[in-house]
Amino acid sequence: MSDTRKRSSIWLQFKDNGNNKAECVHCKMKITLRAGSTTNLHRHMRTVHPTVQLEERGQASTPSTDPGVSHPQKTATAAASTGFPTHAVPMNLIDMSNC
Question: Fewer CB within 10 Å: N-end or C-end of the chain?
C-alpha cells in the first residue's frame, strides 16, 4: 500500500511499513491492513488510544489547549453517541445529559 496516496487523516498516527502493515506512532504496535482499508487503524486508535483526538475535516490532530475541555470526557461522549461499546469506556466518563 506504500505506493498509493494516503487520503485518510488516520495516517498521521501510523507509519506505513508496506506489505499491508502499519505501525502506530504512539505504541509501535503493528496493525494489518485489509484491502487498503483503514478500519483496523481507526479501531486501534479508538480502543488503545481513546484520548488521542483524530483530525476530522481539516481540524487539528492534536488535543485542544482549552483548559475547560476534558479529553477523556469528550471521547466518552462521542463514543456513547456513535454506538461504541460503552463497556470499553468507564461509565463515569460517559456524559448522559444529552440522552
Answer: C
Cell numbers found for residue 89: 469506556
Predicted pLDDT at 91: 63
Distance CA 53, CA 94 (A): 16
Q: Quick one: which H or E segment has residue 47?
A: helix 39-48
Range of the domain at 45: 1-63
pLDDT reported for residue 15: 94
Q: Return the half-sphere exposure (C-beta side, CA atoms, 13 A cut-off) of residue 66.
A: 6
In this predicted model, what pLDDT tens digit does every residue of 17-54 receive, in sequence order? 988 999 999 999 999 998 888 999 999 999 999 999 88
Q: Are 99 and 84 within one domain?
A: yes
The cell for 46 is 479508538
| One domain for residues 79 and 56 | no
From residue 54, give the alpha-carbon distance in Å to each of 18, 24, 35, 61, 96.
23, 13, 22, 5, 23
Same domain, 48 and 87: no
